[in-house]
């Protein structure tokens, strides 16, 4: 039997969507053990002065619960 | 870089949907710091004796994670 | 064992979405016994002369079937 | 034959979701003629100091195109 | 006023989907008080050597927050 | 030409999701003639004392209308 | 105040989707008063000997409830 | 690089869904240049005296923006 | 026991959506045996010179697998 | 690098949804190598004489492509 | 009170999805003032000779309406 | 008349989502002729030791059927 939890985070990067994913996982790894996968629920950008200023992803992260 | 978490709550009020939202945020503010926004995922009512007894909202609350 | 039916209604009010919900449940209670809850499927407004004239909700109402 | 256009707006109010709908329709009526109805696509709130500061609705507004 | 939280878990069983639900709730009850209901968001199976090896469910669990 | 109606019910069983489906169809057969199929729209469980107390299914039942 | 009900039917025609809609509404008009509109939820076809034998539509029909 | 806009219209015809699509595109061509495609988002009918009086389609039209 | 496969095709016709469905099924019948039904997943049109040039449907076709 | 294909099947069993999943995977294993997982897209039942005669599942099966 | 409009564009780039987003925003900034954010609704690619020739994104852009 | 098929694949890359798309199309081109476009249905990542190890995309690929 394996039981995992799913938690949702939102992360931004000034550089790219891929980097936003990496930043989000890196930040989450400070408090979550046993992360296995993450699903990209949503992608959006913030715009300033007619240009993309930040890339944002919403991630549903799955991590294993230890007994 | 900003990383936020998204958590879901369900709140009820005998008075209105708007009040259910307010009650839910007020209760959540006891334990969550840095709440920024909440999305109304679902609205429903409980019915007793042919009348609305409670208004319920499901909220996805976003709050900033401090480093 | 409990078996319930789910039926959908649409109700309007000139005043508010909350009132449209109340009006719909009140009208439904004339013919349905044992209503337990209702889910707000949809919210829209009718507009006349550039102003909201009616608030409308679509409700999926659950009511218990008696044996 | 009737042809209508559908346009999407986002409107906020410090008071309630119903008021946000009214404010949005009022602002849209400055530039759009022939509005008939609006569908509530999304509802969310902004939070400041642990309290709801603004109610926001996204509306898909239908208005008749004149020939 | 009642405020509840909704949390998502993923649980597996070698035997059946029903058993995966039971295992997930049993594991969650170690850390969560006041669980009221759970919604089956997703069902999938793992396959090994052309046969189902595990049944997995994703559950959104609602539990009451005590004041 | 065939015309059918679709009606939605919700049924529970203390034993399993399959049994909830069977109970719901059995109860519906008391009042509906000509049932052909049913679609599982939703599955959820009620929890008491940290254990599953009831399995619930929402079913959309299709039955043929006789002329 | 206006309260309407929404009911779902499924209708087929050997000729076309448009005809299936017409047949379904015609059959429904035998028992329902005050029909206002119908939404096409789903369209599918039955196939026999490599050819379309029937066109089927699922319709959600709205009809006004008289007081 | 190609950039296109997507706009939504709603069009009706007394005759058929296909004709409603044609009517909508014809009306839109009066003001839009460079239309490439349209997606049928929604189909519904208006009913009068128990018969279909109008077929309506909602179309998301894509048209190329010239530099 | 019956096991069927579901495969998706996209078909166009210069004449109508119904004809696009017929053309798609006719083409599919060259390689698929045992087709039973098809679900219309999507409908769109191509536009040339401000007029509909092609009607397109996406179909999910179900066909029985022989043992 | 891993590349997998996803294919959809539909399978029935007179006994249970779990058995329908098992039957579908067993049949698919005759022609597919490298199956890893399957997602339950849809569950429905056929009804005869007021009773469930068959349980049906639609499965999206993922299998690894060998180079 | 803030009222914003939401408009949808589609943009392509031969290089990457991130670049398609940037190109689309850059083109939109020629005619739209006050852009705040954009949501990625859809991502697809065009293929030529078995290779990706263009990356395309559909964006829902929100921009503030000035009074 | 044009008839196309739509098939779904899943592809991974250690580097980026864009690369996963490219890898998937490259692998598919070994067996599929006439690929025209691909839609990104889903994006997720695998995580090892608190870091992204693989980027995965699910693609629905459309390719023309030759007569």
Automatic annotation (TrEMBL), chains A, B, C, D, E, F, G, H, I, J, K, L:
InterPro entries linked: Dodecin, Dodecin-like, Dodecin-like_sf
Gene3D superfamilies reported for this sequence: Flavin-binding protein dodecin (3.30.1660.10)
Entry protein name: Dodecin domain-containing protein
Origin species: Pelagibacterium lentulum
Pfam families assigned: Dodecin (PF07311)
Superkingdom of origin: Bacteria
């Amino acid at each position: 039997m394996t039981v995992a939890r799913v938690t949702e985070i939102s992360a931004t990067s000034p550089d790219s969507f891929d980097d936003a994913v990496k930043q989000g996982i890196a930040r989450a790894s400070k408090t979550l053990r046993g992360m296995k996968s993450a699903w990209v629920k949503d992608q959006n950008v913030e715009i300033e002065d007619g240009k993309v200023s930040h890339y944002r992803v919403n991630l549903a992260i799955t991590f294993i619960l230890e007994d």
